[in-house]
Amino acid sequence: MALSKFLLALAAASGAFAAKTCNVLNYGGVADNSTDIAPAIMSAYTNCVAGSTTSNPADTVLLVPSGTYALQTAVTLTNVADFTIEIDGALNLVFNASLTGTLFSFDDCNNIVWQGSGTIYGHGDLWRPGGNLGTYPSRPRLVRFQNCNNVDMSGVTLNNSPMFHVTIIGNNNVAHNMQIVADHIGETDGFDMSGNNNYVHDVSVENGDECVTVKTPTDGFVAENIQCFYSAGCNIGSFGNNVTGVTVQNIYYKNITQHNGDGGIVLKSYPTASGLVKNATYIDFTFTNIAYPIQVSDFWCPNEACPPTTGNLTWEDITFSSITGTGDNSTRPIIDVECISGYECTGIVFENVDLTKEDGVTATITVSNACGSGLSQLPAC
Ligand SMILES: *[C@@H]1O[C@H](CO)[C@@H](O)[C@H](O)[C@H]1NC(C)=O
Ligand SMILES: *[C@@H]1O[C@H](CO)[C@@H](O)[C@H](O)[C@H]1NC(C)=O
Ligand SMILES: *[C@@H]1O[C@H](CO)[C@@H](O)[C@H](O)[C@H]1NC(C)=O
Ligand SMILES: *[C@@H]1O[C@H](CO)[C@@H](O)[C@H](O)[C@H]1NC(C)=O
Ligand SMILES: *[C@@H]1O[C@H](CO)[C@@H](O)[C@H](O)[C@H]1NC(C)=O
Ligand SMILES: *[C@@H]1O[C@H](CO)[C@@H](O)[C@H](O)[C@H]1NC(C)=O
Ligand SMILES: *[C@@H]1O[C@H](CO)[C@@H](O)[C@H](O)[C@H]1NC(C)=O
């Protein structure tokens, strides 16, 4: 026997890998693509996981084994901790006009591992007939961890949610090594992150809205090795009309590629929002055909003229470093920095930023009410 096999056998015999598995097939789950899997997941939690966890989430595994399942209602787990949910099957969300909320919702949770080789198919196109986002405005979202800490999310592919894919709110959470693939349409956000010291790495997102984006409040966020296709970018915001108390700081993105998107790095706010975003660094980005490669704007008002400026949202100490590639063929500026008069953005730094236009036309840069270094348009502070 090879030494490694011997050690495995020994470990198994000594019970070192004695994880408790709570298989949904034993709690009413049927892999027939028609029985709703959600009640079986809830039952497996209540009747098998609950009360039998240890401090190690690997010891207690709620398993959806390979097979094809229907998903018709929401899985909502509140005040849960210390277990693994492993989805190896394919889950098909069944169209239902009354379905709202979030399909996998974890509230007040700690130390949860989400993993598996499966896929959740949201069939989002059915909630967007003819590409219309207004037909079912309360259509469901896929996964949300709210007030959750120490979550480790990976694996399971998320396919075409009716709305946003992943929202994580809490501290010390990680999402990694997973894929999101959706229609190239709005309101299909990939990862919306807020809280402290969260980390997203080695993920790819194809969609038509946020790729990996930071929301308020956040203190400490890192994103690395990200690929975005057709997305609206790796952004901060947006901060909407009259939002107060925005506080985002200590943000670091590195090694990001983005193809064919509306936005690359877009730091966006209405001119009526207030608060402070400071210390964000963007390094090693490669863009291809991005409508707004770099934009820092207090005048970001989608689908309407901006209301009169009453806010004071300020962007401070933002560094763009080693950023190359192309903006799209429109006349939009490749770099646009627009801050509020009287609340100038300070410490806006560009180093080794080499952006051109797809069609080789002159790339324009616009700057107002900001200071920093690295662009001739940007005055020193
Ligand atoms: C499962 O059902 C969905 C409709 O809810 C369908 O789109 C999908 O093709 C089915 N999958 C299989 C493997 O039959
Ligand atoms: C549709 O969703 C609503 C709300 O969750 C639920 O009450 C209803 O039973 C569902 N209908 C079907 C056919 O699943
Ligand atoms: C950059 O990210 C890509 C994935 O997008 C990965 O394959 C590559 O290894 C990363 N490079 C470094 C230097 O980490
Ligand atoms: C924002 O505040 C202004 C001034 O107080 C008010 O007129 C406007 O209705 C508010 N807008 C929204 C969307 O709340
Ligand atoms: C800025 O943020 C980075 C990344 O989060 C952090 O390492 C660094 O200490 C912060 N700098 C300051 C001055 O707070
Ligand atoms: C920004 O606006 C908010 C809300 O009106 C206010 O509380 C805060 O003091 C203002 N900050 C600055 C720096 O003017
Ligand atoms: C942009 O314009 C160039 C030159 O006309 C063309 O070769 C290229 O295909 C265009 N790119 C896109 C994405 O339309």
UniProtKB/TrEMBL annotation:
Leader sequence residues: 1-18
Taxonomy, superkingdom: Eukaryota
GO biological process: carbohydrate metabolic process; cell wall organization
Record carries keyword Signal: yes
GO molecular function, one term: rhamnogalacturonan alpha-L-rhamnopyranosyl-(1->4)-alpha-D-galactopyranosyluronide lyase activity
Xref: InterPro entries: Glyco_hydro_28 (IPR000743), Pectin_lyas_fold (IPR012334), Pectin_lyase_fold/virulence (IPR011050)
Main subcellular location: secreted
Entry's family note: Belongs to the glycosyl hydrolase 28 family.
Descriptive protein name: Glycoside hydrolase family 28 protein
Annotated keywords: Cell wall biogenesis/degradation, Disulfide bond, Glycoprotein, Glycosidase, Hydrolase, Secreted, Signal
Subcellular location: Secreted
UniProt GO cellular component terms: extracellular region
